[in-house]
Amino acid sequence: MRSCSESIYRIKVTNAEKLLILLKENSLYLPENCKALISELETTITIIKTQNTAVHLKKQLYSDAVENLKRIFIKRDDAIRKRLSGIGVFIKKCFGKTSREALSISDSISQIRGANRIHNVGNSSIENNINQAYLSYTSQIQLFSSVITSLENLKNTYTPFDETLSILALKAIKKEATQANDTVITIYSEYLLLKNSRAKACTRLSELTQEIKSMAKATSTIRKTEFRLIKNLKI
């Protein structure tokens, strides 16, 4: 099913409403079996307008959910990525820069930050597709969870002075990030369903238009001027 831009949906609905007005004004000249199509056309227009509102609302909710997730990971003063440096510094101080513990934590931190990211690579690039896995929030949460597990295994050795770096605080923000990420996925799934439903309704709108135009063309009593107006409406 071919996708349409938001502006195209608006144009289609506007033209469909113009068509509906023309059809109602010339209903006396149209065959009886055309009236059912006109009724369905009016219903379909209403459905698409309602769906447009729902799509725009869901799109905004999705944008807000993504922004909230970014705040948790990047933008807040206590964001996950802003805590990583403190964790890395503490581990290096305790075990040494080249220790197994420091290298393991450093590797996970680098992946969370997107150290493997390849910039300005086309969507068709295999390298870009592979590295997107590292950059996805789901993967980042998994990596962050791994960091927390590693810190827990250090037991009493990991005792940072900064409370935001404590195991309890890290688990709390991981839970917050997980919930926020689940919300993004849920809203995006709902957004896609709404868009697909609207696309199907729009396809039916186009089919109705063609059926009505064919009937109008076959009707000898409809005036040429009105038929020309009907024919020229692109839906």
Describe this structure in words.
The chain has 235 residues and is mostly helical. It has helices at 6-25, 34-75, 80-95, 100-113, 126-135, 137-153, 167-218, 224-232. Helix 2 (34-75) runs antiparallel to helix 7 and helix 4 packs antiparallel against helix 6. The longest helix is centred in the C-terminal third of the chain and has 52 residues, at 167-218. The radius of gyration is 29 Å and the shape is rod-shaped.
Mean pLDDT, all residues: 84
What is the number of E strands? Answer: 0
Helix and strand content put the structural class at mainly alpha
Distance between the termini: 16 Å
Largest sheet: none
Using the CA coordinates, give the radius of gyration.
29 Å
Q: Note the overall shape.
A: rod-shaped
